[in-house]
Amino acid sequence: MSVLLVTGTSTGVGKTVVTAAVAATAAAEGRSVAVCKPAQTGVAPGEPGDLAEITRLSGVTGTLELARYPDPLAPDTAARRCGQPLLTLRDAAAAIDGLRDADLTLVEGAGGLLVRLGEFTVIELARELDAPVLVVAAAGLGTLNHSELTTRALDVAGVRCAGLVIGAWPADPDLASECNRTDLPRVTGVELVGAIPDGAGAWGRQRFTEAAPGWFTAEFAKHD
What we know:
alpha/beta; globular
């Protein structure tokens, strides 16, 4: 089993759509894929969450959600507010290990790299699983700082960064976005391995799955 964690430089940068795109790309290569969302927030019981969106876009049905909290907050805060116990690192790692029959297991975090999914962060989970982290970044102003902070934190923790992906590349990019696409690898020292078209999350499954492999570099698409 290969495990890849997906995090963002902040909230709202497109982690779920990127996770769906990676899942669709791996499936197109003939690999079996499982997706875990350790903590889902801001969604009531019975309502579709991020995993349902990943399935809708990619067609991947092997999904696992470990905890759900109704308030749209960081998972540890949301858990405390509703009186639920915090996820533990041991339980999360064991649940992900239970998906080992899949060729690729994707784990989508919440918010940014240091947001607590329970008693742990994405960094701590990556170290426990000995797995790399894919970083989803914004296209526009501010992304250089956010991306470098994120990749530096991974480096300090000894966690391999699998690459940067721009979560929503605009159809008509402004000057900042165009410059950032060039500067992101330069300032972070991490390869830009993909860019997802803005609005792709609203596409139907067929269009999404057919296009997804073309959003990533050939090397990443074959070896994520």
